[in-house]
Protein backbone atom coordinates (compact mmCIF):
# COMPACT_ATOMS: atom_id res chain seq x y z
CA UNK A 1 0.00 0.00 0.00
CA UNK A 2 1.00 3.60 -0.42
CA UNK A 3 0.85 4.18 3.31
CA UNK A 4 3.46 1.52 4.04
CA UNK A 5 5.87 3.04 1.53
CA UNK A 6 5.20 6.73 2.17
CA UNK A 7 5.11 6.25 5.92
CA UNK A 8 8.89 5.99 5.82
CA UNK A 9 9.22 9.35 4.06
CA UNK A 10 9.50 12.02 6.72
CA UNK A 11 9.46 14.78 4.09
CA UNK A 12 5.74 14.48 3.44
CA UNK A 13 3.26 15.80 5.98
CA UNK A 14 0.93 13.16 7.43
CA UNK A 15 -2.08 14.98 5.99
CA UNK A 16 -0.72 14.54 2.45
CA UNK A 17 0.19 10.90 3.08
CA UNK A 18 -3.30 10.21 4.39
CA UNK A 19 -4.99 12.00 1.49
CA UNK A 20 -2.99 10.07 -1.08
CA UNK A 21 -3.39 6.74 0.71
CA UNK A 22 -7.14 7.17 1.11
CA UNK A 23 -7.42 8.00 -2.60
CA UNK A 24 -5.08 5.48 -4.16
CA UNK A 25 -5.11 2.43 -1.89
CA UNK A 26 -8.71 1.48 -2.82
CA UNK A 27 -7.85 1.87 -6.51
CA UNK A 28 -4.74 -0.26 -6.10
CA UNK A 29 -6.65 -2.96 -4.23
CA UNK A 30 -9.37 -3.04 -6.90
CA UNK A 31 -6.77 -3.17 -9.67
CA UNK A 32 -4.96 -6.11 -8.07
CA UNK A 33 -8.16 -8.17 -7.94
CA UNK A 34 -9.23 -7.20 -11.46
CA UNK A 35 -5.78 -7.96 -12.86
CA UNK A 36 -5.74 -11.36 -11.15
CA UNK A 37 -9.08 -12.28 -12.75
CA UNK A 38 -7.91 -11.18 -16.21
CA UNK A 39 -4.61 -13.07 -15.84
CA UNK A 40 -6.48 -16.22 -14.81
CA UNK A 41 -8.75 -15.93 -17.84
CA UNK A 42 -5.78 -15.42 -20.15
CA UNK A 43 -4.14 -18.50 -18.64
CA UNK A 44 -7.32 -20.41 -19.54
CA UNK A 45 -7.19 -19.07 -23.10
CA UNK A 46 -3.61 -20.21 -23.43
CA UNK A 47 -4.45 -23.64 -22.07
CA UNK A 48 -2.45 -23.34 -18.85
CA UNK A 49 -5.39 -24.54 -16.77
CA UNK A 50 -8.08 -27.19 -16.99
CA UNK A 51 -10.91 -24.64 -17.27
CA UNK A 52 -10.72 -24.78 -21.06
CA UNK A 53 -12.47 -28.14 -20.87
CA UNK A 54 -15.66 -26.36 -19.79
CA UNK A 55 -15.66 -24.16 -22.91
CA UNK A 56 -16.12 -20.82 -21.10
CA UNK A 57 -12.55 -19.74 -21.48
CA UNK A 58 -12.74 -17.29 -24.39
CA UNK A 59 -14.85 -14.69 -22.65
CA UNK A 60 -13.78 -11.47 -21.04
CA UNK A 61 -17.05 -9.55 -20.94
CA UNK A 62 -18.22 -11.35 -17.81
CA UNK A 63 -15.14 -10.15 -15.94
CA UNK A 64 -15.64 -6.60 -17.16
CA UNK A 65 -19.32 -6.63 -16.27
CA UNK A 66 -18.64 -8.04 -12.84
CA UNK A 67 -16.01 -5.39 -12.09
CA UNK A 68 -17.77 -2.34 -13.55
CA UNK A 69 -19.70 -1.82 -10.31
CA UNK A 70 -16.48 -1.79 -8.33
CA UNK A 71 -15.03 0.70 -10.78
CA UNK A 72 -18.05 2.97 -10.38
CA UNK A 73 -17.55 2.95 -6.62
CA UNK A 74 -13.98 4.17 -7.15
CA UNK A 75 -15.12 7.32 -8.96
CA UNK A 76 -14.97 9.33 -5.75
CA UNK A 77 -11.33 8.31 -5.31
CA UNK A 78 -10.46 9.07 -8.92
CA UNK A 79 -11.98 12.54 -8.56
CA UNK A 80 -9.47 13.29 -5.77
CA UNK A 81 -6.57 12.91 -8.20
CA UNK A 82 -6.16 16.65 -8.85
CA UNK A 83 -6.35 17.44 -5.14
CA UNK A 84 -3.67 14.83 -4.42
CA UNK A 85 -1.35 16.30 -7.06
CA UNK A 86 -1.82 19.84 -5.75
CA UNK A 87 -1.12 18.81 -2.16
CA UNK A 88 1.86 16.73 -3.22
CA UNK A 89 3.28 19.65 -5.18
CA UNK A 90 2.80 21.98 -2.20
CA UNK A 91 4.56 19.52 0.08
CA UNK A 92 7.51 19.23 -2.28
UniProtKB/TrEMBL annotation:
SUPFAM superfamilies: DBL homology domain (DH-domain). It comes from the Eukaryota. One of its GO terms (molecular function) is guanyl-nucleotide exchange factor activity. Gene3D superfamilies: Dbl homology (DH) domain (1.20.900.10). This is FERM, RhoGEF and pleckstrin domain-containing protein 1-like. It comes from Notothenia coriiceps.
